[in-house]
C-alpha cells in the first residue's frame, strides 16, 4: 500500500477533533481499551456505550454517504487473509496487555503522550519497540504490495475537497450540539449524544487515515524492510498528537469540564510499575502480529455489520467471523487480565 500523507493527515485531524472535544467538554480521556473494558466488565456506563456505538456506526455513515470508496486500504479484505488462530492469539495479547498496561494507542499515544504523561510516554515507547520487533520476527504475510509502500500517493483535488467538506460537516455538527447542550444544560435529553458523535468522528478518522487497515499499520512497523515501510502512521503524531498537545496546553489550567454535569477526570498518576511495562510489552506483541488494536477492531466490526445488509460477497461472512474471533479473544484477554 502506498504512502498516503494527505489522507493520513486529514484523518488525524478527525482523531484530534474527537479526542480533544471529549476531553474539553467532559473531562474524560478517549482511551478505547479502557472504555471497552468499562462497558463490558466495569460499570457499563452510558457514555462508554455511546462511544462504542459511535465507533461501530462510522462505517455505516461512510457507506451511506459514499465516502468509503475514497478511503485508503481495505481493512476487511486484509483481515480476511489472516488465520483464525493468529487472530485469536493477537486478540488475546492485545486485550490482556491493554488492560494490564492501562491503555493502548488511543489512550496512551493520542491522549497520554500529548499530555506528556510519564506513564504514557513509557507505555508508548515500550509497545512501539515491541510491536516493531514482533512484526519483524513473527511477520503476518498479507497481500504483497504492487508498489513499494513508501511510494507517494496524492489524491485528486476533488477527493481532498470531499474529505475537507466531511471534516467541516462533522465539526459543525458537534459544535452545534455542544452549543445546544450548553444553552439547555438543564435538559437531559441529548446528554449521551456527544459521546456517540465523538466515537463516530474517531471511527471515520481511522478509516480516512487508513489506520483501520492492518496492512497500513504493519507497513509502519516494518522498519527493517524499506520496501514495505509505510511512514503514514508517523503523520498521526503530527495532526493527532501534536494538535492534542497544543489543545491540552490551552485547557489544562481550567481543570474542569465544559459541560456542567461532568467533572475533570484526567489521570494524574506518574508511577512506572511492572504492570504498566509488562502490559505494554504484551500489547505490543499482539499489535505487531496483526496491526490491529481495539479501535480499528471495533471499526472493522462495524464495517462487517454494514456489509451484512449491503454486500453479498463471500468476503462478508469470512470477515465477520474473523473480526468476531479477534474481538472475542480480545475481550477474553481483558477479562483474564482483570484477575491481576
Automatic annotation (TrEMBL):
Listed transmembrane segments: 47-71, 121-142, 154-174, 195-212, 232-251, 272-299, 319-339
Pfam family, one: DUF6691
GO cellular component: plasma membrane
Signal peptide: 1-20
Name of the molecule in the record: Sulphur transport domain-containing protein
Main location (coarse class): membrane
PANTHER family in alphabetical order: INNER MEMBRANE PROTEIN YEDE, SULPHUR TRANSPORT DOMAIN-CONTAINING PROTEIN
Subcellular location: Cell inner membrane
Topological category with respect to the lipid bilayer: Multi-pass membrane protein
Matching InterPro entries: DUF6691 (IPR046513), Sulf_transp_TsuA/YedE (IPR007272)
Record's keyword terms, sorted: Cell inner membrane, Cell membrane, Membrane, Signal, Transmembrane, Transmembrane helix, Transport
Amino acid at each position: 500500500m502506498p504512502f498516503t500523507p494527505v489522507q493520513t493527515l486529514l484523518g488525524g485531524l478527525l482523531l484530534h477533533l474527537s479526542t480533544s472535544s471529549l476531553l474539553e467538554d467532559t473531562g474524560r480521556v478517549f482511551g478505547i481499551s479502557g472504555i471497552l473494558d468499562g462497558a463490558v466488565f466495569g460499570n457499563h456506563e452510558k457514555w462508554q456505550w455511546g462511544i462504542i456505538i459511535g465507533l461501530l456506526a462510522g462505517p455505516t455513515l461512510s457507506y451511506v454517504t459514499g465516502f468509503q470508496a475514497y478511503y485508503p486500504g481495505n481493512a476487511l479484505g486484509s483481515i480476511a487473509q489472516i488465520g483464525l488462530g493468529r487472530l485469536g492469539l493477537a486478540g488475546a495479547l492485545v486485550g490482556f496487555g491493554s488492560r494490564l498496561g492501562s491503555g493502548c494507542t488511543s489512550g496512551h499515544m493520542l491522549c497520554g503522550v500529548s499530555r506528556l504523561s510519564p506513564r504514557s510516554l513509557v507505555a508508548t515507547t515500550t509497545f512501539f519497540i515491541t510491536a516493531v520487533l514482533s512484526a519483524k520476527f513473527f511477520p503476518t504475510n498479507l497481500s504483497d504490495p504492487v508498489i513499494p509502500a513508501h511510494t507517494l500517493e496524492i489524491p485528486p483535488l476533488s477527493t481532498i475537497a470531499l474529505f475537507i467538506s466531511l471534516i467541516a460537516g462533522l465539526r459543525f455538527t458537534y459544535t452545534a450540539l455542544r452549543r445546544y447542550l450548553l444553552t439547555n444544560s438543564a435538559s437531559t435529553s441529548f446528554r449521551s449524544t456527544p459521546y456517540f458523535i465523538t466515537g463516530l468522528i474517531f471511527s471515520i478518522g481511522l478509516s480516512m487515515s487508513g489506520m483501520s487497515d492492518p496492512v497500513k499499520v504493519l507497513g509502519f512497523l516494518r522498519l527493517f524492510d524499506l520496501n514495505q515501510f509505510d511512514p503514514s502512521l508517523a503523520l498521526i503524531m503530527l495532526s493527532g498528537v501534536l494538535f492534542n498537545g497544543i489543545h491540552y496546553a490551552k485547557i489544562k489550567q481550567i481543570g474542569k469540564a465544559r459541560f456542567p454535569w461532568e467533572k475533570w477526570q484526567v489521570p494524574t498518576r506518574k508511577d512506572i510499575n511492572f504492570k504498566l511495562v509488562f502490559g505494554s510489552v504484551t500489547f505490543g506483541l499482539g499489535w505487531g502480529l496483526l496491526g490491529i488494536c481495539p479501535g480499528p477492531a471495533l471499526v472493522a466490526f462495524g464495517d462487517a455489520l454494514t456489509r451484512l445488509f449491503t454486500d453479498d460477497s463471500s468476503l462478508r461472512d469470512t470477515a465477520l467471523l474473523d473480526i468476531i474471533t479477534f474481538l472475542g479473544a480480545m475481550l477474553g484477554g481483558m477479562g483474564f487480565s482483570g484477575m491481576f
